[in-house]
Amino acid sequence: MTDVTEHKYVLTLFYYLNEGMETDFLKYEEAVLPLLEKHNGRLLYRIRPPKESFFLSPG
């Protein structure tokens, strides 16, 4: 008899990109996001607030 346990995880990530690195990050996303489905994962939300939304400048 095999006891099967289903594990569910929620992972929340925050990425802070250095100025000028958005293109590299988009390439990273393009490569990684397809792997989610392969491993029964999914992206629920992608939130990218505009620069005007920040009240503190980085650094």
SSE topology sketch:
Layout: H1 22-38
What does this structure look like?
- The chain has 59 residues and is mainly alpha-helical.
- The chain has a domain at 13-46.
- The chain is built from one helix and no strands.
- The chain has one helix at 22-38.
- The longest helix has 17 residues, at 22-38.
- The termini are far apart.
- The mean pLDDT is 83.
Structural class, please? mainly alpha
For the largest beta-sheet, the strand count, sense and barrel status come to:
none
| Distance from first to last alpha carbon | 57 Å
Shape: elongated
Residues in helix, %? 25-40%
pLDDT < 50 stretches: none
Briefly characterize the structure.
By secondary structure, the protein is mostly helical. It contains one helix and no strands.
